C-alpha cells in the first residue's frame, strides 16, 4: 500500500555505527538465545530464562526490577539519560509443551525433553535485549537524551503475560513500543489481529451409580454437553468474524458412574475487543443456563484475554524505511544444504532465496491470530518486524522451527532483527517529532475518551496453566 506517513531511514553515519555496536553484541545474543533454547521453559515458569536475560541487562548498566506486575518471571530493565523519548523493546521468552527437537534438519527429538522453542521466543528475547543494549550504547555516544526500556515478557503462549503487565501500569510513560517475531521471511507489518478471551468452564455435579441410583446423581457431563451445544448454536447469531472454539478437558472416568466433575476450555475471538467481550458474556450465560438445567454448579475462570492489535502507520513507515536499507541476510553453502534437507519435510516449499529480500509492507490486513502485544498497542504506538530465522516454508509451532532456532540460521535472523529494532528505535530517539506524529495517529484511532480496560477483568494470572504439560 502507499504509505500515509513516508519516512526516511536513520542517517547513514549513525546507522553504520549502530550496526557495528549490534555486531559486537552478536556473540552475547547467541549465548543468551542458546541458553534459553537448551533449557526451554513454559509460560510463567521461565525462571532460568528470565534470570539470564535480566542479568545481561544489569551487566550492561540497566536498572532491573524483577517480578514486576505481580508476575514472578517478568522484569523491567531501564536506562535513562536526561529527558527525552522513551523507547521500549518487548522481549518474550516462553517455550511450548511438546516439540522436543535438536538442531537437525530431520525429525530428531531430544531424549527426556518434552518442550521446545517452536515459536522462537528464545531468539525473540535475545534480539530485543540486544537491540536495547545497542541503542543505549549508541545513545551515549550520540549524546541524546531519552530512556531505553527492555520488558521481560513471560507467558505469551496463552498466558497473556503482557495483559497483566499492562493492567499493572508498566507501560505508562512509554512513547514507542517495538517488537519482532521469528519468521521464514523478512517483513515489516502493521496488521490487525483478533481479540481473544479464553476460559476454563468447570461444572460440579453429584456422583451416583448410573444403574442402581441414577436419580441421586447430577451429571456434570450433561451440563458440559448442553453448554457446548448452546455454544455451537450461538455461532449462527453472533457478529460476523466471530470464532468460538472449545475442547473437553474432563468428562468423567467410567460410563457406569454419573460424573460429578466436567471441564471445558473455551475461547472467543473477534477483531473488535468489544464484540469479543459481548459474545463471551453470552457464553457465560449459556454456562449458567446449562448448570441450571442439569442441577449442577458452574464456575468460569478466565485464563487469558487479549485485545486486537492496533496498527500505527507512522511507526510502520519508520521501521520499513530502516529495514529497506539494512544489510540482507546471507547464508553459507552449508546452511543452504541444511535448509534444503529440512525442506524435504514440506510440500511445495518456497524458494530459499527469499531469506535475502524484504517482503512487501503489510498494513491493516486482518491476521487470523491473537497476541498479548495487542494490549500494549492500545496503550502506546507499537511496531513490529519479522526476520528469516526459519527455513522458508516453516510455520510456527513446528519441530522445524525448533531445529533452525538452535543453529546459525536462527542466529543470523536474530541478528537482523536486533539491527532493525535498534535502528528504528534510534530514529525515534533522535527525532521527538516522529514520536509526536505517532501519538497523534494513535489517539485518533483509539477515539476521544478512550480508557484501557483489560479483557481479563480482575482475574488473577493463571500461573499454573502450563503446569504438567512439559
From TrEMBL:
Record-level GO BP terms: folic acid catabolic process
UniProt cross-references to Pfam families, sorted A to Z: M20_dimer
InterPro entries documented for this protein: Amidohydrolase (IPR017439), Aminobenzoyl-glu_utiliz_pB (IPR017145), Bact_exopeptidase_dim_dom (IPR036264), Peptidase_M20/M20A_hydrolases (IPR052030), Peptidase_M20_dimer (IPR011650)
Gene3D superfamilies the UniProt entry points to: 3.30.70.360, Zn peptidases
Peptidase M20 dimerisation domain residues: 196-290
Domain of life: Bacteria
Protein name, per record: Amidohydrolase
Organism for this UniProt entry: Pseudooceanicola antarcticus
Amino acid at each position: 500500500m502507499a504509505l500515509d506517513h513516508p519516512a526516511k531511514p536513520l542517517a547513514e553515519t549513525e546507522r553504520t555505527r549502530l550496526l557495528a555496536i549490534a555486531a559486537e553484541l552478536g556473540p552475547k545474543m547467541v549465548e543468551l538465545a542458546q541458553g534459553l533454547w537448551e533449557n526451554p521453559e513454559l509460560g510463567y515458569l521461565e525462571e532460568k530464562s528470565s534470570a539470564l536475560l535480566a542479568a545481561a541487562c544489569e551487566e550492561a548498566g540497566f536498572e532491573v526490577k524483577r517480578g514486576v506486575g505481580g508476575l514472578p518471571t517478568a522484569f523491567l530493565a531501564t536506562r535513562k539519560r536526561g529527558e527525552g523519548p522513551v523507547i521500549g523493546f518487548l522481549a518474550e521468552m516462553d517455550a511450548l509443551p511438546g516439540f522436543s527437537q535438536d538442531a537437525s534438519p530431520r525429525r530428531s527429538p531430544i531424549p527426556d525433553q518434552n518442550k521446545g522453542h517452536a515459536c522462537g521466543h528464545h531468539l525473540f528475547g535475545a534480539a530485543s535485549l540486544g537491540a536495547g543494549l545497542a541503542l543505549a550504547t549508541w545513545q551515549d555516544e550520540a549524546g541524546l537524551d531519552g530512556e531505553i526500556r527492555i520488558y521481560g515478557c513471560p507467558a505469551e503462549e496463552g498466558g497473556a503475560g503482557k495483559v497483566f503487565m499492562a493492567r499493572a501500569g508498566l507501560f505508562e510513560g512509554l512513547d514507542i513500543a517495538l517488537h519482532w517475531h521469528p519468521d521464514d521471511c523478512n517483513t515489516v507489518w502493521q496488521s490487525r489481529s483478533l481479540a481473544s478471551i479464553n476460559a476454563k468452564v468447570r461444572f460440579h455435579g453429584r456422583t451416583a451409580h448410573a444403574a442402581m441410583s441414577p436419580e441421586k446423581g447430577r451429571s456434570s457431563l450433561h451440563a458440559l454437553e448442553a453448554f457446548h451445544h448452546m455454544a455451537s448454536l450461538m455461532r449462527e447469531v453472533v457478529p460476523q468474524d466471530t470464532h468460538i472454539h472449545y475442547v473437553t478437558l474432563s468428562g468423567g472416568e467410567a460410563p457406569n458412574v454419573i460424573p460429578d466433575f466436567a471441564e471445558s476450555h473455551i475461547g472467543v475471538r473477534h477483531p473488535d475487543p468489544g464484540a469479543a467481550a459481548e459474545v463471551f458474556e453470552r457464553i457465560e450465560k449459556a454456562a449458567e443456563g446449562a448448570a441450571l438445567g442439569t442441577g449442577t454448579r458452574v464456575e468460569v475462570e478466565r485464563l487469558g484475554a487479549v485485545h486486537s492489535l492496533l496498527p500505527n502507520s507512522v511507526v510502520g513507515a519508520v521501521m520499513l524505511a530502516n529495514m529497506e536499507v539494512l544489510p540482507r541476510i546471507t547464508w553459507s553453502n552449508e546452511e543452504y544444504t541444511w535448509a534444503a534437507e529440512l525442506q524435504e519435510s514440506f510440500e511445495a516449499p518456497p524458494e530459499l532465496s527469499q531469506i535475502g529480500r524484504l517482503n512487501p509492507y503489510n498494513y491493516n490486513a486482518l491476521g487470523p491470530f491473537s497476541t498479548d502485544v495487542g494490549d500494549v498497542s492500545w496503550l502506546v504506538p507499537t511496531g513490529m518486524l519479522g526476520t528469516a530465522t526459519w527455513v522458508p516454508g516453516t510455520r510456527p509451532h513446528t519441530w522445524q522451527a525448533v531445529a533452525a532456532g538452535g543453529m546459525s540460521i536462527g542466529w543470523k535472523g536474530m541478528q537482523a532483527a536486533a539491527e532493525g529494532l535498534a535502528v528504528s528505535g534510534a530514529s525515534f530517539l533522535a527525532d521527538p517529532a516522529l514520536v509526536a506524529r505517532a501519538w497523534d495517529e494513535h489517539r485518533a484511532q483509539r477515539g476521544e475518551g478512550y480508557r484501557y480496560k483489560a479483557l481479563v477483568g480482575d482475574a488473577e494470572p493463571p500461573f499454573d496453566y502450563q503446569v504438567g504439560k512439559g
